[in-house]
Amino acid sequence: MAALTVCPYCGTGCQIIVNDLRNGERVIGYSKSLVNEGKLCIKGSSGLSYNFSRERLKYPFVKRGEGFVRASWDSAIEETSRRLTDIVNKYGPDSVAFLSSAKSTNEENFLMQKIARMTGTNNVDHCARSCHSPTALGLITTLGAGAATGSIKSLEDSRTFFVIGSNTTEQHPIIGTKIMNELKRGKNLIVADPRTTQLAEIATIHLRFKPGTDTALLNSLMFVILKEHLEDEEFIKGRTQGFEELEREIEKYSPEITESITGVKPDAIREAAVMIAKEKPTSILYAMGITQHIHGTENVMSVSNLSLITGNVGVRGSGIFPLRGQNNVQGSSDMGALSEWYPGYVPVDSPKVSDLENVWKKDLPRKKGLTLSEMFDAASDGKIRAMYVMGENPLVTEAAVSDVEKGIDNLELLVVQDIFMTLTAGVADIVLPAATSLEKEGTFTNTERRIQKVNKVYDCPGEAMPDWWILNEIGKRVAGTKDYSSPKEIFEEICRVVPSYSGATYENIYPNGKQWPIDSANPEGTEVLHGSTFPIGRAKLVPIAYGPPAEMVDAKYNFIMTTGRNYYHWHSGTMTRKTDILQRESPSSYAEINVDDAKKLGIRNSQNITIESRHGSIETKAILTDKIPSGIIFVPFHFDESRVNRLVGKSLDPLSKMPEYKVVAVRLVV
């Protein structure tokens, strides 16, 4: 019964062959895959047994009094539709908000945002707001496309890798392994990270900088490149704009000046800068380590500046690689599940929206909707009365969790569509049981823009149904959307309204997928973007002044906490913590603390401690290590019993509305 599909975890998009897992057979990698070439990490090979967990949601439930009662699909859909419609009629379309999901398929995200827009609101968003919204905005601004410029396979042609803000071997293990293999062939690796990650340990140069000083570090690298006359003058003159303004800003960031900001020695910055500029082609890989800041969009634009002035764009082996955290972050963004963009990144106030209106036969809203980080405050204020959540668990994943709780408590209606009774589902008014990616078909778009076919392997448990089916039933009642017969029919509509998908079909993307844009000019897809031109004509060089993080240490809160993933778990742990092997390897929350810091505070390994910030507190256990610098602690965000986002405040990137997850002032209480 072996079936070829796509791993449901990180954005690498590994293709997997799934055998009968219930009989103990293993998942294996697809050897002909252009993405993973048969290789898998532990989550891909041993992390799918959650599919058969006894805790799976199997039936619709509605809240009656203090508890849930089982409902039929007819009654659950009727009640959901009626209550949503009543709220829209009473308070207006902007009184509802839709939270889409990067775990769901392109077709499901497309349908979710279509329901929102045809209801009359742009209040639709998804978890990219909390991971890669700075990527979308930053790279669209500078390059014209908010996506990776090359392919994973093209990294084989890189001469130098610059990894910043990514623990690649734990977050994207297959890509991390590729980099390690390339190092054995004599390639160069520069890692910029406060922690001594696995890649940092083997790096040619490790720039161990202070959290939140990314822009100062990047500007200082560019300072050296310009002073040493290592910039690509031909590329700058022929294909960019704004160089003079950038140069004036860069003049302020000599390595000697920035050492006091970043903590990095001037000689190390000089060595790294020369390597990036001279040992080409250079690829820059980053993840949430640079995006989850109040300066996240500026960080992304700084990465773009560095890549552009060295001519490391448009050539195989060079370019910018934002590593997506979830399996379909790229695709859900492409589909327009963002409050400021329609499908294909058409701004909501653009005249081009009329093209979509002609297809959908509906007048569509033209003002920006609320972002994910704004929705819960609006709920607290009574502006949002109903929220529809698909495949997300904001009571664990969102910043300022206490405020999220207040917002949810103030809703008149919360609908949650998921595969497990998550913390968020547990406080919902209506819970709708969904299918996993192994139980449905559709497409995902991975971190390199590759659209890949997802195939059904198993039947759903009980009465659970695919997200697209549930949304279809709700949408035609609430918003008057088309009655779709299959995900394929939705995909065909996507290809009509999203130009970069226009040449794709279910048939021609199978089995290896294709990288968008796929169109009449590029029928086989496009491996390397921006080879001769940019969608905006000339790429924009944007001068970025360094600004400090929102929070600084003081006498009371004297540590900086940063958050992230570990190798064995993923996102809020909804799936991995229902998988025996992964849960066994990493069973509970912890905080990594520098050995010397722990000694000063009298903290022993595995001792329970309390971490307090200006916003909240959690209890966890201490793990002592010399891989994290003094004055910094690291806490993963997978564990709902120690919700680290209780410690995170409400400061937002003013451009992308990204919360500042990576720099939080805390103190340790023994």
Structural overview:
The model has no long low-confidence stretch (mean pLDDT 96). β25 and β26 form a beta hairpin. The strands form 7 sheets. A 7-stranded mixed sheet has the order 5-4-18-17-16-6-7, with helices on both faces. The chain folds into 3 domains: 75-131 and 327-504, 3-Layer(aba) Sandwich (Rossmann fold); 133-322, Dimethylsulfoxide Reductase, domain 2 (3-Layer(aba) Sandwich); 559-669, Beta Barrel (Barwin-like endoglucanases). The protein contains 24 helices and 28 strands. The chain has 670 residues and is α/β, with parallel strands linked by helices. The relative contact order is 0.17. The N and C termini lie far apart (54 Å). α4 (133-142) crosses α14 (296-309).
Total count of helical runs of at least 4 residues: 24
CATH class annotation of the largest domain: Alpha Beta
Report the principal-axis shape.
Answer: globular
CATH fold category name of the largest domain: Rossmann fold
Order of strands in the sheet with the most strands?
5-4-18-17-16-6-7
Rg, rounded, reads 24 Å
Oligomer: single chain
Judging by the overall fold, what is the CATH architecture of the largest domain?
Answer: 3-Layer(aba) Sandwich
Total beta strands: 28
Average predicted confidence as pLDDT: 96
List the helices and strands and how they pair.
Blueprint (H helix, E strand, L loop, with lengths): L2 E4 L8 E4 L9 E2 L12 H5 L14 E4 L2 E4 L2 H19 L4 E4 L6 H14 L4 E2 L7 H10 L17 E5 L3 H4 L1 H11 L4 E5 L5 H5 L2 E3 L6 H14 L5 H7 E2 L1 H8 L4 H8 L3 H13 L3 E5 L1 H4 L4 H14 L9 E4 L6 H6 L6 E2 L3 E2 L5 H8 L11 H9 L5 E5 L3 H4 L3 H9 L3 E6 L4 H4 L3 E4 L8 E4 L4 E5 L12 H12 L8 H11 L16 E2 L23 E2 L18 E6 L15 H6 L4 E5 H7 L6 E6 L3 E9 L6 E5 L27 E6 L1
Parallel strand pairs: 6-7, 6-16, 8-9, 8-12, 9-10, 11-22, 12-13, 16-17, 17-18, 23-27, 24-26
Antiparallel strand pairs: 1-2, 2-3, 4-5, 4-18, 14-15, 19-20, 20-21, 23-28, 24-27, 25-26, 25-28
Helix pairs in contact: 2-21, 3-21, 3-22, 4-14, 8-11, 8-12, 8-14, 11-12, 17-19
